[in-house]
Task: structure prediction
Amino acid sequence: MSVNGQPAEGEVEGRTLLVDFLRNSLELTGTHVGCDTSQCGACVVHVNGAAVKACTMFALEAEGAEVTTIEGIAAPDGTLSAVQQAFQEHHGLQCGFCTPGMVMSATALLKDNPRPTEAEIREYLQGNICRCTGYHNIVKAVMAASGQDVGAIAAE
Result:
């Protein structure tokens, strides 16, 4: 497979999850394991351009695939992506545990829907759990990353 634009390989047992291969074999620890039940979304990565919970996919299923993790979202010189920058500017993170999955999900959303409504953002991010922020600033960050006015977002 290719991970973040670089060839990656390793021997794994058939039951090895993609998240475990990324974290343990490739030492890409930005992809978090939060629940082990595919409920929290902390492990979201992109596989062939689609957002996937890496705890629901075996590493062997990604053979030959293009995988992007949170480490591959920023530019090679370290410049943050628009989504990462917006999360920083709009305080879309607190403890940071859910942040990689949120950023990966938001990036996938904006690829498919460059100007989502607030309701569309909230619906898309339902598969990601954040226990700290209350989601308000996360939604603001996604709106900002899409180039939309964040002043119209209602406080909850």
The longest helix spans residues 99-112. The chain has a mean pLDDT of 94.
